[in-house]
Write a structure and sequence with these properties.
By secondary structure, the chain is mainly alpha-helical. The chain is about 70% helix and about 0% strand. The chain has helices at about 5-25, 30-45, 65-90, 90-100, 100-110, 120-135, 145-165, 175-190, 200-225, 230-235, 240-250, 260-275.
Length: about 300
């Protein structure tokens, strides 16, 4: 088995563990406070992972500031929506909707980038919609705000991919990550003030674990993209669906039925087909389209 795929499996396993920890904190602390401390601890770990040729003190020097700030804003709200989704709906359902991101990329590529979209990719979009209907089943199950938030995460992740196409190879990683950290800490810090509760030791350790998972996953994906093509890493992304089902059943007593499992499989298949058929000339680009959008 290829190293890139194995590294992808490890990265997405750590992301899933971090998301599960976020879910466990949902009944104790507000969404914004979870966002603030998660980003704070993530930033501490990410601070030491910069490329050797870059300097954090120069992160504010940007070649394309509009793209960098746009990416930061999309990451900020993706993080807030993601936390809300994880803490209000079953983990598997949240992932199912977030995994609509590759399908949104197809639509945005056609509308924004004017790419030629073939019938296979449009078929994948329709299949993904069918998969979501099987999982969520509106009319048979209650459609909650958490479902809408998860769809928002998927759309914002797709926007980020489109933005990163314009930044790839032309902007420093320290600029992209530094601006995202500032946006996240400032917005969540201010928004958390009205309902702020001083975290206890257990909660602080949970935040540290979330930060460690996020940073470890990000760094692992960076290493994976340097040693393997994106097409080799793509299948590992959908291991998160298995993790979501396993974690949800083990720790949160969330048991998807047969129809929901079928829907998850359809979503994974449609998203994977979309990724494989993406007609993007990556060249020497150092980011990959499965990169984590939120901290």
């Amino acid at each position: 088995m290829q190293k890139g795929f194995l590294l992808g499996l490890f990265a997405y396993a750590t992301f899933s563990m971090g998301d599960a920890t976020i879910k466990s904190l949902g009944s104790q602390i507000s969404v914004f406070e979870i966002g603030f401390f998660s980003i704070l601890f993530s930033g501490i770990f990410i601070f030491f992972s910069k490329p050797r040729e870059e300097r954090w003190r120069e992160f504010w020097r940007m070649s394309r500031p509009f793209g960098v700030h746009g990416r930061a804003i999309s990451g900020l709200f993706a993080g807030i929506f993601g936390i809300y989704a994880f803490t209000t709906i079953p983990l598997a359902e949240a992932y199912a909707l977030i995994f609509l991101s590759p399908l949104f990329v197809t639509v945005l590529s056609a509308v924004v980038l004017k790419e030629n979209i073939g019938p296979w990719r449009w078929a994948a979009v329709l299949a993904g919609i069918v998969g979501v209907i099987l999982v969520v089943r509106p009319g048979f199950k209650t459609l909650e705000l958490g479902h809408i938030a998860a769809i928002g995460v998927a759309f914002l992740a797709a926007m980020t991919i489109v933005l990163l196409r314009s930044l790839a190879g032309k902007e420093k990683r320290t600029s992209i990550m530094g601006v995202l950290l500032i946006y996240g800490l400032t917005f969540n810090g201010i928004a958390s003030i009205p309902d702020f509760v001083m975290p206890n030791l257990h909660q602080l350790l949970a935040f540290a674990f979330i930060g460690l998972c996020t940073a470890t996953g990000q760094i692992t994906l960076l290493v994976a993209t340097r040693i393997a093509p994106a097409s080799q890493i793509a299948p590992s992304h959908y291991s998160q669906i298995l993790w979501a089902v396993a974690i949800g059943m083990t720790f949160f007593h969330e048991y998807p039925d047969a129809i929901a499992v079928l829907g998850l499989a359809v979503i994974a298949g449609s998203g994977l087909l979309t990724m494989i058929r993406e007609k993007v000339r990556l060249g020497t680009v150092r980011w990959n389209p499965f990169f984590r959008n939120r901290l």
